[in-house]
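sorry for the late reply, my laptop died twice this morning and i had to redo everyting from scratch. anyway the thing you sent over, i finally got around to it. pasting the sequence first so we're on the same page, its 207 residues, then the predicted structure underneath. double check i copied it right bc i was rushing
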Amino acid sequence: MNNTPRKHRKAVLIEPSAIIAAGLKTLLAEAGSEFEICGTFEEPTHFVERAPLLNPDLILIDPAVFDFQKRTAVHNFFEGQQGAALVAVVYSFIEPEVLKQYHGSIHIYDDGHKIIRKLRQAIDARQHETESAGENSSYELTERESEILVSVAKGMTNKEIADTHHISVHTVISHRKNITRKTGIKTVSGLTVYALLNNLIDQSEVE
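ok and here's the structure:
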């Protein structure tokens, strides 16, 4: 039998219901879990403002807090939290296509031990997703990073980029760091030349 203590994991909960939020906290505490809810938020935007300070391993979220049109674009909203597993908190019918956006889900009728097991599975799923990305793509810009690069080349500020792509400024900064790491280019002028050479932007768009 393996008695090695499990790693302590931090989780944030995005849930407008105070009763459900309190219930989840209690269940995890009573089960002696390695998971600790280090912050609760009623709205996703409230969490994003505090995300750099919390740096959670898990984001537990009620899918219903998103507008219907945004429910299938959850990963875009949490792009700045690429290391965190997303777990849906379900207590009403949620479309299967929406649940596919998450690394796992817990249900209102799950007991504490079942919730812990599901959270561990979500962490494993997130790690597997990261490993599956492979080293071959580590220096290739993602589609979103290319979009951010184009905006940078156009001379837009971080705030303007965030507003244009409907993401947080923190997420923009995270993307820019990744772009610099992958391209090895630190200056805006250098990134502009890179965008031109790779046909991501036309000369007329930067004049």
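The first helix runs from residue 18 to 30.
thats about all i looked at so far, will dig more tmrw
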